[in-house]
Design brief:
By secondary structure, this protein is an all-alpha fold. It has 20 helices and no strands. Helix content is 80%, strand content 0%.
Length: 538
Amino acid sequence: MPSLGRASAMIAAGTIASRATGLIRAVVLVTAIGAFGEASDAFSVANQLPNYVFQVLSAGLITAVLVPQIVKWSAREDGGRAHLSKLFTLGTIAMLAVTAVAMLLAPWLIALLGRDWAPDQRALGTAFAYWCLPQVFFYGMFALIGETLNARRVFGPYAWAPIVNNIVSIIGFAAFIVIFGGERSELHQWDPLLIGVFGGITTFGIVAQTIVLVIFWRRTGLSLRPDFRWRGMGLGDLRDLARWSFAMLLVGLVVSVVQQQVISDASGDDASATVWMNAWLVFMLPYSIIVMSIGTPYFTQLSEHASEGRDDEVRADIGRAIRTLGLLVVIAAVALMVAAVPASRVFTGSEEQAVAAAPVLIGFLASLVPLAVQFIVQRAFYAYGDTRTPFLFTAFQAAIAIGLALLMPLIFSEGYLAASVAFCQSLSSLAQVILASWLLHRRLGSLGMGSSVWALVRFTLAAIPAGIAASAVYLLAGGDGSWMAGSGIDGIAGKLLAAVGAGILGLIAIVVYIAILALFRAPELRTATGLLRRLTGR
């Protein structure tokens, strides 16, 4: 547990720094291209394409299939060097091929996601896509190198490297604003030079973060070389594992495409694609800092215990991970819900736009707790080399999410489409985690889910008064028309004030939450306190 705590603290520190600089990057990006408009939506969709492919490659193939395999290979006499040399050779070739195919399909991908766009908007989206899609190769290599480092218990670099991307992008976008001007949200404001500069800045940031991981490779103690002799490395077993995992992520991609098509009907309105993606970015802040930083070391430990057949320890790991994550994500969800308008104001141009965007963020936040539990349950299956069962419960979730997303335009106006689709995504995630937990119970026996669920209930009961206290402060300050929402203040100053307001509201909620849990002597507080001490070095 001390080693898990140190690893979690290291990842948390890197993730906090990464997400903090990522938020600054997003602010500068929105200042350059705007939050509402056809051009901003065209760029947002084009720049999201590499992320879709990255999700398939990273979560679907590398995390699910290779991490448990690398753990097993590391027990070999050569530390897995021979197999990893073959794997990286094959992976590099595969990444190049996937990138080439993605670029060839760029016009059709943009047409698919921007179904109702005008020809000029599709043309701009396609032009941005050609500059952004080379990121696929570097994202793939970043994931392959990073997950190998994680499997070898070198956890820090994968969490810290994205800071380099953010810094490069911040400097690049700021220079773009100084040279060419900002708020370029309209189609007529873009020409080939501006498209190339803006797209090039975005892609170069991904290149830089990948180079950083290469520098840290020596910490693995492995020296690799090109090896095209792939026979004998167990490709058949890997193919069987990857088949279901790849299918699972393709299902997730279909869900994203359907949701994007529904939201694209509101392009340029209060619930644009850009607002959807920025709300997702804010939502991913607590998810990445809490779930990824704590869950990633647990996944490595789960894989080690599963490979050794120590099922009792796997069950104990699952329970501890869920309770530890639950303690933190419950208050994170409540605090961000209270501060939804100030948090949204950071990525919008006015308090009116923030009020319109806040429901999208709240819709996503409803799934924060289910997704935290899902992270651990899903990776328990991965630890046992089972990718078929995760595909089944993901397909179940996808059917619900798609069905509800297609239903939303019949119920809500365009201004509420993105928020309703986000909330439907949360409902489908809740259904998914219930099914996944039941299936894992059938495989491993009693998981002690009763105590975990009771812990989540206790955390929620403590978080409710904490949220009420923060809401009271927000209302006393003036609510959506106050300085906390950056009301009446344009430009960066309004965004910074809103960020400060969101921070104050979050701090109030956290203090009240901790006080209530301490009053009732919640045992999980000791674990969180230990993580905090390791994070601060005390």
